[in-house]
Amino acid sequence: MTEQRKNGGQKKYQVGVEAALEVMGGKWKPLIIYHLMTGRKRTSELRRLMPAITQKMLTTQLRGLEKDEIITRKVYNEVPPKVEYELTPYGWGLKPALDLLCYWGEDHLEKVYGDKSKVLEEFQSCKE
């Protein structure tokens, strides 16, 4: 889970947020995690929820989250193949942080646009 330096020593961080962003930073990982908070999802479901993400990027992000033990990947022995992703107990630890980001984001949209429902594609308030 932690990145190793080439010399064999452990990577050093300045603050905890740096380590958190290394695992869940970027445009797509927080959205993937947020969507998995509603339950396990297939790749196709995640693509529908995030239409702007490419299949390659989604696969890359899912692999990274799996490597960091934030999500699990379950492969069913079926034809056609069925794969589902869900949060691990460790991944659920990100819920409070993502909830706060969601609330802040809604406040930000209200401040900038006046009515967040005008700019959120499918308006859905943050989960309680």
Question: How do you describe this structure in short?
Answer:
The chain has 128 residues and is mainly alpha-helical. The chain has helices at 16-24, 29-36, 43-49, 55-67, 89-92, 95-113, and strands at residues 41-42, 71-76, 82-87.
> Which descriptor suits the 3D outline?
globular
CATH level 4 superfamily of the domain at 16-90: Winged helix-like DNA-binding domain superfamily/Winged helix DNA-binding domain
Helical content, roughly? 40-55%
The parts where pLDDT drops under 50 for at least 5 residues are none
How many beta-strand elements? 3
Strand order of the largest sheet: 1-3-2
Structural commentary:
The chain has a domain at 16-90: Arc Repressor Mutant, subunit A (Orthogonal Bundle). The protein contains six helices and three strands. The longest helix is centred in the last third of the chain and has 19 residues, at 95-113. A hairpin with a 5-residue loop joins strand 2 and strand 3. It has a three-stranded antiparallel β-sheet. With 128 residues, the chain is mainly α. Helices cover 47% and strands 11% of the residues. Keywords: DNA-binding, Transcription, Transcription regulation. GO terms for molecular function: DNA binding. This is BH3884 protein. InterPro entries: HTH_HxlR (IPR002577), WH-like_DNA-bd_sf (IPR036388), WH_DNA-bd_sf (IPR036390).
